[in-house]
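Input chain follows. Return structure tokens only.
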Amino acid sequence: MNGRHDEGPPEHGGLSHDLPVLARRRMIRLMAGASLVPLVGCAPEGKTTAAPSASSAGCAEIPEETAGPYPGDGSGGVNVLKESGVVRSDITRSFGDSAGGTADGVPLTITLTVVDAASGCGTPKRGAAVYLWHCDREGAYSLYSEGVTDENYLRGVQETDDKGRVTFRSVFPGCYPGRWPHVHFEVYGSLADATAATSITNTSQLAFPKDVCDTVYATDGYGASVRNLSGLSLEDDGIFSDGHDRQLAAMTGSSGDGYTAALTVPV
């Protein structure tokens, strides 16, 4: 089962470790082999960081992580997946009968490529679906956090194309106390499964390189993130501390033009 207890913005008490999920992740990494090495590096703004190849990572499945207390998938009460309009690529605005707000911040495009781990990561998972969500610039989660409970922005579902890809237009998330900047996602076998909120196949998180976080958080509106990030590291994060080589996004772009984060997701 996927873990359902995770970190939270400061008004919800900060980081809570989900030991069963982390123990499961460590077992997955041991089974994948102890020789995994991180190949994703940090590059200057406007440059591209290299993503790990399938062969170098042994094509192990994406590490299983907790969905946290704010998934909006029905497991914690509220269920955005059954609402008309959740299938969309632009997740910056709320939809439906919610307040209709827009999340502000540095533009971010997120591209996930879902592949079949059993095939050696050589076969795209066409027709799968990805539900993706993350906090806003202030570190708040729509549907849950004070002030944005009527919003559902920064949440959406996409079906993978012939190359196994999904793309979301969003904004760069803020950093709140206790957690490294990240994005949550769930993989489903089909779009029908996702919109019915059934049969999750994988739950994981994407991490951002520090140099990109530092650059983004130097822009207007991210002042609190500068303070919160200063006491954190990927190595000490409760989710990524046991290894983040297969979850660290490859980044291109700049704070002025916006960034693209790319990650291969073997399932």
